[in-house]
């Protein structure tokens, strides 16, 4: 997918990364936010509206023929007068049906394209948001936002305006025809319009709040299910199935109650509308009977009027329902706005005024008085971190759990920006470089090997899709993975299963190493590369790790003494800063730290 600028949210705090509570939106405000996000083929929209209007006009014209048939054919019993209006009616019906079919298809076409475009746009946005910020939503909840909520937004932003125009035009056409037939009866009919409008507003407000609750609890349930299913090995091993069952049932009940509230509202709204419609019909029949007795209207005229009414009243009802569903769809819009407001921390678009890094990038790293606090957290995780790392140096970062070792890596990758100080790559402040460029020169190897459901080859070339078979083989050999891959019946084409579930922990780690080997980036971040492995598997990846780090500037986050023994420099991170330095380059760093102090 091509790179695009982050979505600009009018109400977003710059650089905000934490999810915020729902913003309250009106349907027009939701339309103004979402419509510009997706480029819809406006010609198709206009043509579909025109076709649907033509279809309504054909229906209206055809109904006029009912009166002609009654007064000129049925009343006098004149069969000869039947054929011409009958042929006209047939022609209008055929034209109306064709216009309705084509208009309906084109409306659906633009809706589906809008849906696709909106989902792509949102996913593009999500991919720029720090993973920590996404975690606060929960994966399941995000999935419901990218599926159910997006559909509701589509119904409001893409389908509703077309429906509004065609229904309103239909109402005007049938209303005008009804007026033309008998303005007195039409006035009686329109007397109920304010009641329908008021009802729609009240129900719309109630429905929006019910939908908000329903969408939120749907999201929470999806996240709970996702977490429970992902942790199933733990649940089963600890015999906690019943506890999980209770949690899912509790959340399911909350969702059910929210759904029932919606059902209660819509089951009252529909019949209430029909009741009002019945009142209106009775009033029209009474007034019509009086008009006929006074010879102001013929029976044919009354029949035509009744037929117009048969079309007009559903249109009025539809307008009311449209207002209710638009109002309830804004609840889904609010949930998506919440996602859009969780903005990327770093700017990723290239800036023409800033020259790229001079190639080849050597990998010289420097942290100058770097401090950082997570958004919303009072206490800084890091402060006054000062380091100068020459290209190709292997730096081991040790320290107690929670000291901020992984945070150093996140700052280097620009997942977050330092609250103070600067980080330099080859002497350039990384905050001044596009985030994509910074990341292109850094390879991250995580504790969790993170494989995708695909073949071994697809996973190895993930970071460099254009790698040749020879390069894949060389990387796998260097990562000590070729041996076991070769024994598999399908070799490099073996599917690894979801998250690599068909492989052992050590095998997954070696595939991830091969993937990292293929990248030519001069800087490496290794986050606990031996964690979670037994001694034999950990020993097995020592040699590949040495090959991987050779010639690359490496930040090696580890507690493993076998790894620290190989480092050029060992840093100890505690109380937010580098407090202890060991290794052959200790003097340089101590001096730098002293200088910073
Ligand atoms: N997204 C976040 N939001 C708020 N606080 C966070 C976030 N991520 C980490 N922290 C906090 O920042 C501190 C440093 O976390 P970090 O993951 O960098 O520690 P670490 O030294 O790598 O720990 P470990 O060795 O256990 O992996 C911890 O106290 C942690 O609770």
From TrEMBL:
Residues 46-328 form the ABC transmembrane type-1 domain. PROSITE patterns: ABC_TM1F, ABC_TRANSPORTER_1, ABC_TRANSPORTER_2. Its main location: membrane. Keywords: ATP-binding, Membrane, Nucleotide-binding, Transmembrane, Transmembrane helix. The keyword Transmembrane helix applies. It is a multi-pass membrane protein. Residues 1-20 are annotated as: Disordered. It is found in: Cell membrane. The chain crosses the membrane at residues 43-66, 86-106, 185-203. It comes from the Bacteria. Residues 1-19 have a biased composition (Low complexity). Residues 365-597 form the ABC transporter domain. InterPro entries: AAA+_ATPase, ABC1_TM_dom, ABC1_TM_sf, ABC_transporter-like_ATP-bd, ABC_transporter-like_CS, P-loop_NTPase, Type_1_exporter. One of its GO terms (molecular function) is ATP binding. This is ABC transporter ATP-binding protein.
């Amino acid at each position: 997918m091509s790179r695009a600028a982050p979505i600009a949210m009018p109400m977003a705090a710059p650089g905000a990364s934490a999810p915020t509570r729902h913003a309250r939106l009106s349907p027009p405000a939701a339309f103004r936010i979402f419509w510009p996000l997706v480029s819809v083929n406006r010609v198709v929209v206009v043509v579909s509206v025109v076709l649907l209007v033509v279809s309504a006009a054909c229906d209206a014209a055809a109904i006029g023929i009912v009166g002609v048939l009654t007064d000129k054919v049925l009343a006098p019993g004149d069969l000869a007068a039947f054929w011409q209006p009958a042929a006209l009616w047939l022609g209008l019906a055929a034209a109306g049906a064709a216009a309705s079919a084509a208009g309906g298809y084109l409306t659906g076409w633009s809706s589906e394209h809008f849906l696709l475009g909106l989902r792509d746009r949102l996913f593009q946005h999500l991919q720029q948001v720090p993973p920590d910020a996404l975690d606060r939503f929960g994966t399941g909840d995000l999935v419901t936002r990218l599926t159910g909520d997006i559909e509701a937004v589509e119904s409001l932003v893409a389908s509703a305006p077309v429906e509004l125009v065609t229904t309103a035009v239909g109402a005007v056409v049938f209303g005008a025809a009804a007026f033309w037939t008998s303005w007195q009866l039409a006035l009686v009919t329109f007397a109920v319009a304010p009641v329908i409008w008021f009802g729609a507003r009240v129900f719309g407000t109630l429905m929006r709040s019910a939908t908000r609750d329903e969408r939120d609890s749907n999201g929470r349930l999806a996240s709970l299910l996702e977490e429970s299913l992902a942790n199933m090995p733990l649940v089963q091993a600890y015999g906690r199935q019943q506890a999980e069952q209770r949690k899912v049932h509790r959340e399911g009940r909350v969702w059910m109650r929210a759904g029932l509230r919606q059902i209660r509202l819509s089951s009252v709204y529909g019949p209430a509308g029909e009741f009002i419609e019945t009142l209106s019909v009775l009033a029209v029949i009474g007034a019509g009977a009086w008009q006929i007795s006074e010879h102001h209207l013929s029976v044919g005229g009354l029949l035509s009027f009744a037929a117009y009414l048969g079309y007009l009243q559903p249109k009025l009802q539809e307008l009311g329902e449209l207002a209710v569903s638009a109002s309830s769809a804004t609840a889904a819009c609010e949930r998506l706005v919440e996602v859009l407001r969780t903005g990327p921390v770093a700017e990723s678009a290239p800036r023409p005024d800033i020259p790229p890094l001079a190639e080849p990038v050597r990998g010289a790293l420097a942290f100058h008085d770097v401090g950082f606090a997570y958004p919303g957290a009072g206490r800084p995780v890091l402060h006054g971190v000062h380091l100068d790392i020459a290209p190709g140096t292997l730096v081991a970062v040790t320290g107690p759990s929670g000291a901020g070792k992984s945070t150093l890596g996140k700052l280097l990758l620009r997942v977050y920006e330092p609250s103070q100080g600067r980080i330099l790559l080859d002497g350039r402040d990384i905050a001044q470089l596009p985030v994509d460029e910074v990341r292109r020169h850094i390879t991250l190897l995580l504790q969790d090997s993170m494989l995708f459901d695909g073949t071994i080859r697809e996973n190895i070339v993930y970071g460099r899709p254009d790698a040749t078979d020879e390069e894949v083989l060389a990387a796998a050999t260097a990562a000590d993975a070729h041996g076991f891959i070769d024994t598999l019946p399908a070799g490099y084409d073996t599917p690894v299963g979801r998250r690599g579930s068909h492989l052992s922990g050590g095998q997954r780690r070696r595939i991830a190493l091969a993937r990292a080997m293929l990248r030519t980036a001069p800087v490496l971040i290794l986050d606990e590369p031996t964690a979670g492995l037994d001694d034999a598997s950990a020993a097995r990846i020592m040699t590949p790790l040495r090959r991987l780090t050779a010639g690359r500037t490496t930040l090696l986050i580890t507690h493993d003494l076998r790894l620290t023994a190989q480092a050029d420099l060992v840093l100890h991170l505690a109380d937010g800063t580098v407090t202890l330095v060991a290794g052959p380059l200790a003097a340089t760093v101590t001096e730098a730290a002293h200088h910073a102090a």
